[in-house]
Every structure is written in C-alpha cells, then in structure tokens.
Amino acid sequence: MIYLDNAATTLVKPDLVKERLIENFDKIGNPSRGFNEISLYTGRMVLATRIKLARLFNIKDPKRLAFCSNATEALNIAISSFIGRDDHVITSLIEHNSVLRPLYLKEKEGAELSFVGLKDEKEGVLDYGMMEGLVRENTKALIISHASNVTGNITDLSIVSDFCKKHGLILIVDAAQSAGLIDIDVEKYGIDVLCFTGHKALYGLTGTGGIYIREGLNPRAIKVGGSGINSFDKDHPQTMPEVLEAGTINAYGVLSLNASLDFINQIGLANIRKKEKDLLTYFEERLMEIPTLTIFGSKNLDKRVGIIAINSTKVPANDLAQILAEKYGIATRAGAHCAPLCHKALRTEEDGLVRFSLSYFTKKEEIDKTIYALKEILGDDYDSNNI
After folding, report:
1. Which member of 7, 135, 266, 283 lies 3.0 to 4.6 Å from 357 by CB, making a disulfide possible if both were Cys?
2. pTM for the complete prediction?
3. What would the pLDDT profile of 276-297 be if each residue is shown by its tens digit?
4. Strand pairing partners for 325?
C-alpha cells in the first residue's frame, strides 16, 4: 500500500519506536503505584517523556503538561474547563469537530460563538482582519487550529497571539496537525492551552496525546478516580498533572512517545519540516500536470503542512478515493474530514475533497505512482460509468 493518509494517523513509525516497545514489552507496569522496580521504572519513563515534550514546546514546568488519549480529549478538557455559559468565544471556520462540537455544547448552555472567516474560498487562508470586529465585552477565549486538517494551511500564531494579549483572551491552540512538525513555543506565542495528539507527526501510538495548561489556569477534571496520591481524600487531586490523569496511564503509548521524541530530536525538527515541504512541493508540481484537478490551500507552501486537498470535474471525490484504494492500493481520505464549516466556506460541502497527506517517511516514488494513477483515472479514455 501507498499510504497518504498521515493527517489521520501516521502509519510508518520510526524503527526506534518499534525497537523500544519490544525491548520494554515486559518492563512496563503502573507508575506511581508502588516501590517495586517495575512501577518505579515506568514512573521514571513517564516523567522523562513529560520532560521531553516540555522541551519540545518550551514549557517551563513539565508538571503543567498532562497526558490524554488524543487531541479530542485535550480540547474537551480545555473547553469544559475555561468556557462558561456567559462567555463569548472566537474560533474559526477551519476548525475540526473536536473544537466545534464541545463549543456547540457550551452554546446550548448559553455561551456565544463567533467565527473568523476565510479570505479566499479556494486558498482557504484565514481573514485575520475580521478578529477585531468580533470582540465583545464578554469575550473569554480564542480557540484556533495551528494547521488545517483540510487544506494544511498554517495559522499565523504571531498574529493571533498579539490579538489575544491585546484583549486579555485565553489562547487555546489545537496542534493536532502541527505538533512534531512545526516549532511550537508556548512562551514565545503566549499559548495558554496547547492541545496535541501523539499519533500523527509525533509518531506515537494511537490513544496518545496531551494538554499543556499555563500556571494560573486551573482545569476541571473530566474524570476522577485513582491517582496514586491522597487516597483517603474524597476529592480527586486538583494539582497538575494529577487532576487530569485519573486511573492507569497509557504507559505503552507514553513509551512510544518517549522513543519518537528521541527520533525527532536526532533528525531535527527543521530537517523533518524541510523534507516534508520538499515532498509537498514536488507533489503539487506534479498534480499541476493534470488539468481537471483543482488544488485547495495556500499557494505559499511555506504556510502549509504536508496536506494536499483536491477535487476533480471528472470524478466525484469519494469515487476517486475508492478507485485509488481498490485499484491502485493508495490510501487517502475523502469527504468532509470532520471539518464541516471549512468545507462550506470552500464550497465543497456537496462533494467533499480528496486529501493526500504526507509524512517524513513518504517517498518520491510513491508520489510518482500516485500521479500515474490519477492521470490514468482522470484521462480522456477513462470510462466513468465503471466507477
């Protein structure tokens, strides 16, 4: 299979991740639950991983970072903790349902929502000039995706950070598509809450992720139970990270992140980003050889992650993705990508788009084979009645 669905989850993991999981398969237990060798070893590994993530994001205090099952859980924690029924929230049309649906729940309780729109319905770039006009007296926070999972467009955190500082807003960033690929500095950008997943550009196992919450913001526990400390208290611990880590942690998932972070540090974040951008540039140039395709996203590839979204005047998006998978063994993602407002803004809600998403491990030969398949499918002699 040619796997080009890395925006959903990375399939190919670094060898280091596989090796470390196998080496430690019978050495991982329950951290913070005893003085035995296995528990202590696991606890030290979890702490080391927390520290490595803190360094990656320039988080001063690693204890302000808690592990979650994915970015969705992290975003639910952030929105349920810091958005109240009388608050107004600014977000954008590029958001994933992991942001939108928790916000809609808050809207039912009385919260108000406003959306930053797009400048262009094809490039899909955010219209930052709209933000000032959306501010109200009760505006509490701005919630934004660092990179769109539909177009790959990268949000300018400098602009949104300055805006939030000016108006005293909480800045919550969804880094599901950027963590491990783009440099994220929570201090530089004044990020109050950072939500990320571990199974995409961080190359970890599924069921991993995390949330950073700055000092002074106190999250609400969405689950309570065992914590390994204060067992006689009726209330769950309220300190970070214990407040958000009730129950047995996904230690094998954390171990995968421990290894993948070593891989990222060995290769270098800038080198990983450069390789993916080179692949993106090559893929986009080759796609331009096919006249019946439309490419969505910023033309400035410095402002895109390795995502290319297309549609065709000849074959519907879902059919195109199905043919690529069944006939050519090429994995993509078609449809709405859990980002309905983005597709409405791009005017692609009826047919959707086919999304190709790259990773550090994607090969140029795989891109060439994909272009060959697309040319064959979309060529003049292709019989669309056979779809």
Report:
1. 7
2. 0.95
3. 999 999 999 999 999 999 999 9
4. none
